[in-house]
Structure formats: structure tokens, C-alpha cells
Amino acid sequence: MSTSIHQRQQQQPHHHHHLLSNPNPISPRNPLDWRRPISIFGRTGLLILLTLMVVVGVLLPTMKMRMPDGLLSRASVSKWRDYTLAQAAEFVAKNGTVIVCAVSQPYLPFLNNWLISIARQKHQDKVLVIAEDYATLYTVNQKWPGHAVLVPPAPDAQTAHKFGSMGFFNFTSRRPRHLLNILELGYNVMYNDVDMVWLADPFPYLQGKHDVYFTDDMAAVKPLNHSHDLPPPGKKGRTYICSCMIFMRPTNGAKLVMKKWIEELQAQPWSRAKKSNDQPAFNWALNRTAGEVDLYLLPQAAFPTGGLYFKNKTWVQETKGMNVIIHNNYITGFEKKIKRFQDYGLWLVDDHAQESPLGKL
């Protein structure tokens, strides 16, 4: 790319020189010549037109390459800034279903990894990226127009990605609002964390017409034919359901769970001592609505927690071919997560970026 710019820049003066030193210059000695109207069809008119065309042809591509994207896409930037969740959901929904993730800029490599795995199952068209900063909004929509939306206000970017920080809490506590909004627009919604990888199509597992489908975060091995009811509470009096993979139908029951989740988050604000995340509140919401909402626990073999999949080799062998979505949790830190995905052959970004709708980032 840089060589072509260099060559073009070398050519430029040559073009100008050649065209402007026309063999019959308008002689400045005869003042009458200056008053002669230049006909666009006359020789001079055509030469000027030609010169302009060449200048535009030569300069524009190099200017485009050198100009910051910001200047070129002012219009598209304001378009995405005003893009609403309703417009975005309508654009991506297929069969009344939207697949949603929420991403801040540091997680873009994980977003791309997740997208490659979804594209392999032919479900990428219904993905909506909820961008938690403007950089993510523009990056995604520039490469994949219409697939990212930002719900203002954008959280504080500096802190949004450090697990256990207040910024991370504020970032994740926006999640149930986004999901409730999509349910209220009338769509089925599947939420995924982007540190997940699809090995198979999860949709066949969303059987029946339940309100909310979810996965257990406990690493204890369950029998293959385990119950699909909400598991019994653990030591802290609540269950350990993961808020990482949720599927909901736009029912009153599902909306009630989201409203309760929002209430629980407001009741348990972040503090230095507690360093909470959004998962306990999701569990309290499920526990408190269990009697009135139709809940469905997804099979562990298909949707294992990272604490099981990455730590129990025997179990992985026994459930070979049954795993559908793998969650890279029970570990914190970008580098550690990437390394673990690489060790298990689940880091697809390096060799398969062309399979992602975003291409190589």
C-alpha cells in the first residue's frame, strides 16, 4: 500500500507538468487573448477539464488514503450516533430473533473470535453488538454497517473492562436494560458474553416455549439427563446461574425477570468491600420470580461453564461431540483468556479472521 502511495506521489508532478505546459500556451503578451471566452468545447476548455479530471483522479485516492477516517465519514458518524436500538433490532432480527452482546473496545478481538464461531453456524446476520463506547460503535459499523448500536449514555471507557471494578459493574448493570428494551420491542433475544465460542448451533436446544433459558455456572458434574428446573440454592442462599448466556422470549415472564434484575442491581450497588458484578443480582431475580416465570436450565453437556470445560479433561472426553457453547470464564485477564483459548484451539482470530463479518481488525 505504501509503495503505491509513493509511486502516485512521484507521478503527480509529472502529470501536472505535462498537461499545464500545453504546446499552445495562451500568450500573456496579447491582452485580448485573456478576454476571449473559453468555450468548454474548445481546445483550452477540454484541456482544463482534462487537467481537472487527472488531478482529481490522481489526488483523490491518495487523499483518501491519507485523510483520517473522521473527515471522510462525518455524515456516517452522525448517522450511527443517532441510530436507535429499535432501528438496529429491526435491521438485524431474523425470524423475530436477535443475538446480542455488549462490548467495549478492548474486547474487540474477543468479539471477532465469537463472530467467527457464529458465522460457522450461519447465525451472524442476526447479531447486534451493543457498543459501550463510540470507538466500538464506529469500528463495527464501518466494517459491518448497521450491526452496532450505542445506547446512551456511554459508560466511562477507562474502567469498563476491569473485572470487579466499579466501572465494570456500571457497564454490566446496563445489560438487563438493553435486554428488557429488546423484549419490549417484541423480539426473542439471545445474550452472549463475547468470551464464548460456538462449536455447534444452540437454537435446537431452546426447546419448548419457556420464558427464560440459562446455564449453570457450577463446575460440579451433573448427570446427562439432569432436571431443567432452576437448581437448588447454594451456600449464599441463591443459585449460581451464569448471566453469560441467556435466551428469552418476549413474554411477561421474561420481562418480569429483567425488571427484577434491574431492581436487584439498584438494591445491591457496587462498593469497595463487595465489588459485585451483575451475576448475583440475576440469580436473585430468578430465585424471586421462579414461581411465576417459566424457567429452563439448559443441558450442562451442551453449555458447560469454563470451570468444567477447561478443568475436567475426563468430562470433556465423556461429552465429546455434545458441547455447543464454551464459556472462557473461571479465569480473569485478557492475556490469560487468549492463551487458554489458544491452548484449546478455540482462538480463531489469528488464522480465520476472513470468516468474520468484521474481517481482520
TrEMBL record:
* Pfam short name (any one): Nucleotid_trans
From the Swiss-Prot or TrEMBL record, give the protein name: Glycosyltransferase
One GO term (biological process):
rhamnogalacturonan II biosynthetic process
Mention any one GO cellular component term assigned to this protein in its UniProt record. Answer: Golgi membrane
Q: Which family does it belong to?
A: Belongs to the glycosyltransferase 77 family.
Q: Which organism is it from?
A: Vitis vinifera (Grape)
Q: Where is this region: Disordered?
A: 1-26
Q: Which UniProt keywords apply?
A: Cell wall biogenesis/degradation, Glycosyltransferase, Golgi apparatus, Membrane, Signal-anchor, Transferase, Transmembrane, Transmembrane helix
